[in-house]
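2024-03-11 09:14:02 INFO worker-7 job=invfold-0412 stage=load source=structure_tokens
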């Protein structure tokens, strides 16, 4: 085995190494391109199918292996349709020379606390003045498909900015703000409405949009009712109403603050 590896290593030239590095760089940037979109979940599903097929073949489960092979073959024809938004976005970036974009940064402890303070301050003001608002916090599932429906901003979150966006009779008042990290990616975004028949009749379009996006992703939505000023949050297709600023902080802190690793727990214990 070792001799075979040495023989392979001898045949690899400088151009082969460049070729491998370019392919790796291309795959990495394609991953960055779909990481914040719903297509990422489909890619994970395809990987599960491929692994299941390999395992079924190894175990000699011929019927399951045949079903999985045909499912994957049929799915290959559907990929161009499923990934149409990502393919279009890739071609656009190639045309603009922006294929190799920067990955999103992770918030530190201080940044997360500043973001929570800005969100709570703005929500309290909006609730007190009964100004309708809908804020979406992106998590693992990407929301680029919805970001493209609004006006791109890509600016740092501040309480003053969030309040101004939702002032009535302004162009972006009726849409949703989508936040990634500590940046407002876009405002005036259109979201899918939930079709759940069990939603209370008194809940309007904002609440249904918040529930809808939380059904289709792991996003966290904050809603302020325009009629009553009630603060609500939606997550996992469920809505929780009548929150105050303390309850809202309890919901936001676990989402935005990084969890300490086992190593950091060890250092804290020793100190």
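2024-03-11 09:14:09 INFO worker-7 stage=emit residues=271
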């Amino acid at each position: 085995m070792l001799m075979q590896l040495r023989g392979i290593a001898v045949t690899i030239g400088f151009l082969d190494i460049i070729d491998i590095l370019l392919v790796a760089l291309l795959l990495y940037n394609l991953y960055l391109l779909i990481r914040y979109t719903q297509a990422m979940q489909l890619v994970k599903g395809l990987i599960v199918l491929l692994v299941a097929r390999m395992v079924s073949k190894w175990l000699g489960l011929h019927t399951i292996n045949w079903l999985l092979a045909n499912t994957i073959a049929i799915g290959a024809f559907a990929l161009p349709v499923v990934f149409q938004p990502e393919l279009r976005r890739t071609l656009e970036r190639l045309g603009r020379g922006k294929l190799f974009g920067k990955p999103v940064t992770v918030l530190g402890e201080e940044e997360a606390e500043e973001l929570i303070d800005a969100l709570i301050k703005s929500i309290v003001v909006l609730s007190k003045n009964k100004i309708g608002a809908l804020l979406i916090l992106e998590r693992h599932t990407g929301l680029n498909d919805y970001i493209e429906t609004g006006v791109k901003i890509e600016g740092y979150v501040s309480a003053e900015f969030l309040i101004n966006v939702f002032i009535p009779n302004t162009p972006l008042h009726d849409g949703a703000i989508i936040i990634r990290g500590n940046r407002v990616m876009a405002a005036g975004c259109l979201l899918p409405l939930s079709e759940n028949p069990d939603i209370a009749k008194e809940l309007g379009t904002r609440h249904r949009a918040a529930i809808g996006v939380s059904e289709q992703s792991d996003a966290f939505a904050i809603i302020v009712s325009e009629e009553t000023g009630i603060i609500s949050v939606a997550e996992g297709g469920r809505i929780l109403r009548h929150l105050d600023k303390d309850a809202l902080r309890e919901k936001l802190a676990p989402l935005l603050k990084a969890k300490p690793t086992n190593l950091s727990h060890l250092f804290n214990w020793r100190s």
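2024-03-11 09:14:09 INFO worker-7 stage=report msg="The two ends are 48 Å apart (CA to CA)."
2024-03-11 09:14:10 INFO worker-7 job finished
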